[in-house]
Amino acid sequence: MDIDALKSAHPDHWKKAAAIRALTLDAVHAANSGHSGMPMGMADVATVLFEKHLKFDAANPEWPDRDRFILSAGHGSMLLYSLLYLTGDAEITLDQIKNFRQLGAKTAGHPENFLAKAIETTTGPLGQGIANSVGFAMAEEIQRARFGAKLVDHHTYVIAGDGCLMEGVSHEAIGLAGRQKLSKLTVFWDDNNITIDGKVALSDRTDQKARFEAAGWHVQEIDGHNPEEIDAAITAAKKSDLPSMIACKTHIALGHAAQDTSKGHGALTDPEQLTAAKEAYDWPYGPFEVPAEIKSAWEAIGQRGAAARGDWETRFSAASGAKQKEFERQQNGEAPKKLSATIKALKKQVSEEKPKAATRKSSEMVLEVINPIMPETLGGSADLTGSNNTKTGDLGVFDVDNRAGRYVYFGIREHGMASAMNGMALHGGVRPYGGTFMCFTDYARPAMRLSALMQQPVVYVMTHDSIGLGEDGPTHQPVEHLAISRATPNTLVFRPADTVETAEAWEIALTQQKTPSVLSLTRQGLPTVRTEHKTKNMVAQGGYVLADAEGKREVILIATGSEVEIAMQARETLQAEGIGVRVVSMPCMELFAQQDDAYRKRVLPGGPVRVGIEAGMRAGGWDRWLLGERGREAKAGFIGMDSFGASAPAGELFEHFGITAEAVVAKVKDLLG
Amino acid sequence: MDIDALKSAHPDHWKKAAAIRALTLDAVHAANSGHSGMPMGMADVATVLFEKHLKFDAANPEWPDRDRFILSAGHGSMLLYSLLYLTGDAEITLDQIKNFRQLGAKTAGHPENFLAKAIETTTGPLGQGIANSVGFAMAEEIQRARFGAKLVDHHTYVIAGDGCLMEGVSHEAIGLAGRQKLSKLTVFWDDNNITIDGKVALSDRTDQKARFEAAGWHVQEIDGHNPEEIDAAITAAKKSDLPSMIACKTHIALGHAAQDTSKGHGALTDPEQLTAAKEAYDWPYGPFEVPAEIKSAWEAIGQRGAAARGDWETRFSAASGAKQKEFERQQNGEAPKKLSATIKALKKQVSEEKPKAATRKSSEMVLEVINPIMPETLGGSADLTGSNNTKTGDLGVFDVDNRAGRYVYFGIREHGMASAMNGMALHGGVRPYGGTFMCFTDYARPAMRLSALMQQPVVYVMTHDSIGLGEDGPTHQPVEHLAISRATPNTLVFRPADTVETAEAWEIALTQQKTPSVLSLTRQGLPTVRTEHKTKNMVAQGGYVLADAEGKREVILIATGSEVEIAMQARETLQAEGIGVRVVSMPCMELFAQQDDAYRKRVLPGGPVRVGIEAGMRAGGWDRWLLGERGREAKAGFIGMDSFGASAPAGELFEHFGITAEAVVAKVKDLLG
């Protein structure tokens, strides 16, 4: 790479880009860890994007109509931090750059959306950023259809590396984007031909350009160090009516001794090589030093969008008060006031009518009343619409010619769906929910973890939640999936027992601001157990006494979802024999754990033997409630699964695996001695 | 679709294919559930493949040199069961077909490899079969390089649907296959233009042919109902030096009222429509009836390969006794006798030298002695070779021109790697292990579950197993991943504390026949805690007393992996204050659970307070050991994580999250009261 030619051809550009490269070298050196090569390779692309195209106002990083910049190759976090510091972001200060990767810094090893307003999304797990970006771009289309181009008209730009493009989720993402012709989405592929293990060709020879074309994308290839080519390509991408991929030929760790090698991917900390690289850049400044003229030039870029933002504010102010209010409510993720009354009315009706319904069907009943009063909801399914019961009558289908549609046929793309939903939630203005079989939590899992880590209130509608799925067999029967979601921090896992609990769970899920929810719903029909209407949302307490013991309380049965019915049957048998049995419905362990000690002791007093009942693994968080947090509370047992399931009609499987009222009764008697 | 034209053009073919269609209709009708449309659409392709190309001998389904047939679109299981029954498989009898999807039947809803010898792999979770098949094809290349084409020379054929091709894992699989030019792999794409939600175009417009070409595949397109075109395409695929994709234009549910509709995907049980379809087929026979002449024709197909198998047996017998024995040992997955002595010698050396080493490094030390004596091992990493320490000096790199290489650069494809490893293990003759960061368990998860369900002894080398990973931050720091793997049935999760335990864990993992293993290994250095050499494999007991209390035993500390060091430090402090502390190292909870009651009570007697220490979530199986299976055993506490991690140097994070000897001491004192 002839750096001198780059410098002399575009001296002003060069200096701005060199600032990114130098800051990266200094921060990684100070931290003695990090990834230098990617920011050094992509500094030119980022500089041109920010200087010439990205619509943003550094002083207002939360301006709703800003363009979104997604660093999918999140290990190159110093690229983003450099850009934010240079353009004048209030949070990513020079001190933060100097504290790169240190405890408490906003400049974490990988960009974390919850640490600074200007960080759009958390990236690092490869492929997530590009998959999020599909959701960002869809949210923009949806919001524009809803509020008009005067208020919503922005682009989504992504930098992705070979890692992102090798990950399977990228396939799901680009297929969905191509199908939906998300023309305001542009992906820069950092085509540097290097992965951690060596040359890309060690593991991959995919023709990425042909691949994106096959998925329906507009594709260009440029020299990623030539600012004119970069500028022209972005201009062309913006004009295309397809999503755009710009293959940027770059040199990883440009100008460093490690250039074009896999060593260049990681932390370049050798002081002499660092000095030599800075010399090659004509960058005679001290560590973390950016000369005032270059900083000013960058700050001007950061202010470039201020006028556009001002115009937007004017247009926003000109909109009707109702429109402003609704825009802000949706943007802030606030549930409408009517939600509570709507849920209460449904609960009342259901408590009276006492339908027998699968909770997936219950969920549909709830959505039928929610979707009409919450225009911000966006539903979808990974090709199981009729099974997940996620589509209600009023939604319309999101499509190229119907951006107002609120239902997405995500295709057989559980992972891409989850990651796109994260993007929608991060974008704001959209409250996404999506369905698949609970067992395919596995496929969506990397993105579900990120919903929790990124504090995004995405709702996962996971139906067919046990061996109750029946004949499809063990590949489709979750047994460990409640455990998986319950072990994940900042995740609410709901396993409602009937339509009333399902309505309560949905109400809680839709009022979350920072926590995703997993709804674990049955395929098979369940009786209504909440037959007495209560206005109070009982699920909000996580667990509660559904039926108390008559006579001396000797036993507490704790059950969730479809097994609450079994607990109630076992209670009847035991009470008939004079054994007092309390039944606790425990639809959400996380919320129960959040109740105060007094409440929890009232629901689960020490003394009586306890039996947990759930058609899943005991490892799914049970021992805490069965045995007590500090032990010694009760003699306890569990009725559930301790193996994979099998293929047979559901009723036979419950018998076969011993998840029956008879088995509960026997366990209780064994424990009573 | 003009069925009459099909019938008259190829009447003999038609009858054979019609047998599959009729059996499918009858079995789904009897089960009142299942998927009719796919077998009815792909019956012609399967018939030609089995009749003209597939090398198999129905009487010997485990013949090692058979061609492999993988039904990636596993919901179409009746296609496979029909083929097996018709060709005379001893296990898939007519009774089994009649019991389709019933409890105890071998004809489960989706094909389960462990139910019948002729079922090569478990499919149903979409994309897994095609990704397995890459491992099958790699194993064939490897085994051929090792034993020669006289003993190993077979093809892998796959039927995949749109679902398989939309799933992200298919991208990883076809990229890897294209890179490795797996020329003996052929994928039939059931291009029927239908998914569950409707037309494929609802969610996808990918040009699949262009996509496979971009990944380096040989691509053809045919009429999937024309036997001559099918035959010619398979012949051409076999000649290509690239993996082959044959796009088969088909009609789902051919000849049924539901043909070409999404309804045709599922269970077609309407009796009148069923009768009409059979009439269209000229199939006047009763339910489950296949006339003798058609059954005979199919049985002849089943016997077609008998001669080839006989020739193979002759060639096998002509090989040297040592070669025969080694082939069989590898094929049967038996560890070499030397393994035990080799591990013991390493343990002795390490106990004496007492190195401080990260357990990922310990793992490499173990592999350095194992790989030379186990030629069947095949290592790899998802682009983290230098971090996972999975490549030893002697392996060589598997590549197009070096099929004897035993190390695979899998690329940034955790899911594809795991699924390919499943395929290798299923194929036989190869014992695969593969590495990534423990946090990316999430990406590999769908295939990891299948390792367990399919009973395949794949080894997952999961390094950087806690906040000890440091600065890369919470996206890369597992906290719930031990819980995830421990909640999965039939999975051994090892978290060794030092090099000795790592060696013992590897020995156990490599002697498994039916259980996958997850090795949870540190990034950071750990002292040797097993300083006294014991020939016995202590990890085999799952948990054991590492250091007993001096004086009265008041406390039991239970720890795993990197936290054993902390437990030992806390013990020292407490003992100095006169408090007797036992330290139990618990490297494998599953194996501890398998010990008899007496042993477990010896290690964890009731009475002393217990504190568990692990830099993960308490939900990771802890309460059972802390509180006792039936409760009331001990007062207990836990020192670990209850949130996501953060970005900072590892030592600071352990302080920050309170996972220190001081915190353990404080917790103990609190519990002692």
Summarize the structure.
2 copies of one chain form a homodimer. Chain A is of the alpha/beta class and 673 residues long.
Please specify the SSE layout and strand pairing.
Two copies of one chain form a homodimer.
Chain A: H1 3-9, H2 11-31, H3 37-53, E1 68-71, H4 77-87, H5 94-98, H6 128-147, E2 156-160, H7 162-166, H8 168-179, E3 185-191, E4 194-195, E5 198-199, H9 208-214, E6 218-223, H10 227-239, E7 244-249, H11 271-280, H12 292-303, H13 306-318, H14 321-331, H15 338-353, E8 357-358, H16 359-370, E9 377-381, H17 385-388, E10 407-409, H18 414-427, E11 431-437, H19 441-453, E12 459-463, H20 481-486, E13 492-494, H21 499-511, E14 517-520, E15 525-526, E16 544-547, E17 553-559, H22 563-576, E18 580-585, H23 589-594, H24 597-603, E19 609-617, H25 623-627, E20 636-641, H26 650-656, H27 661-672
Parallel strand pairs in A: 1-2, 2-3, 3-7, 6-7, 9-10, 9-11, 11-12, 12-14, 13-14, 17-18, 17-19, 19-20
Antiparallel strand pairs in A: 4-5, 8-15, 16-18
Notes on the structure:
Two copies of one chain form a homodimer. Chain A is α/β, with parallel strands linked by helices. The first copy, chain A, contains 27 helices and 20 strands. A six-stranded parallel beta sheet of chain A has the order 10-9-11-12-14-13, with helices on both faces. The longest helix of chain A is centred in the N-terminal third of the chain and has 21 residues, at 11-31. The model of chain A has no long low-confidence stretch (mean pLDDT 97). Chains A and B meet through helix 7, helix 8, helix 9, helix 17 and helix 19 of A and helix 7, helix 8, helix 9, helix 17 and helix 19 of B. Chains A, B: Mg(2+) binds at residues 162, 192, 194. Chains A, B: Its cofactor is Ca(2+); Co(2+); Mg(2+); thiamine diphosphate. Chains A, B: Pathway: Carbohydrate degradation; pentose phosphate pathway; Carbohydrate biosynthesis; Calvin cycle. Chains A, B: It is an enzyme of class 2 (transferase).
